[in-house]
From TrEMBL:
Transmembrane segments: 31-56, 76-96, 108-126, 132-154, 166-191
InterPro entries associated with the record: Yip1_dom
Keyword Magnesium: no
Main subcellular localisation: membrane
GO cellular component: membrane
Localization annotation: Membrane
UniProt protein name: YIP1 family protein
Domain Yip1: 7-181
Length: 200
């Protein structure tokens, strides 16, 4: 069912959001296990393989690889950061709903957040190809489509008018950007504490 919705959001997002809205959400554990646990593995595993087996080359220079010993803890930390980030953005959405007069469960907010971020998770496959400009282009395209899914999905999924949906979606986009900046700050702190990448 998740795969059907995922591809439906790529081809006809508005109709698919309406179908997702009508489904039963399930428990938090069901939502995590059924939808997020494996989807969040794509970027860390792909980047782990790409950085340790193939290496990166910036502007056609020498190929740089990470050691397995340094890449593995970073991949594990990245995986749990993705899970935590999605859960926190969903909680922020759940918390803000009352301001907009919407009554939805945390599980439904979590489902919406997972489906909205699915293009970015799928773009993680590009980490297998260590070509910097290609990776940046693919990730930017995925981010743009996720933002489109957010703005098109909020009014339908939350069953609110378009104007209020735009404000709600803009608020969620701000929360997502703040979460990204927070992850970058934590990364810098960890690197300063000695958990930095080791190159081969």
């Amino acid at each position: 069912m998740f795969a059907n919705h995922m591809f439906g959001l790529l081809y006809h997002p508005r109709r698919e959001w309406d179908e997702i809205r009508r489904e039963r959400a399930g428990s938090i554990l069901e939502v995590f296990v059924r939808n997020l646990i494996f989807l969040a593995l794509i970027p860390p595993v792909s980047l782990f393989i790409g950085t340790t087996q193939y290496g990166w080359s910036i502007a056609g220079g020498d190929v740089v690889k990470l050691s397995t010993e340094s890449a593995l803890p970073m991949a594990v930390a990245f995986y749990f950061a993705l899970l935590f980030g999605v859960a926190m953005v969903a909680y922020a959405m759940f918390w803000m709903e009352r301001t907009f007069g919407v009554s939805a469960s945390y599980e439904r907010c979590l489902i919406f957040t997972i489906f909205t971020s699915t293009p970015m998770f799928l773009a993680g496959f590009i980490g297998l190809l260590p070509i910097l400009w290609l990776d940046v282009m693919v990730v930017l395209a995925a981010v743009c489509y996720s933002v489109y899914l957010l703005y098109s999905g909020v009014p339908i999924f939350m069953d609110i008018p378009e104007e209020r949906g735009f404000i709600f979606a803009s608020s969620m986009l701000t929360v997502g950007l703040c979460a990204l900046v927070g992850c970058m700050a934590v990364t810098v702190i960890l690197w300063g504490m000695g958990v930095a990448p080791a190159f081969v």
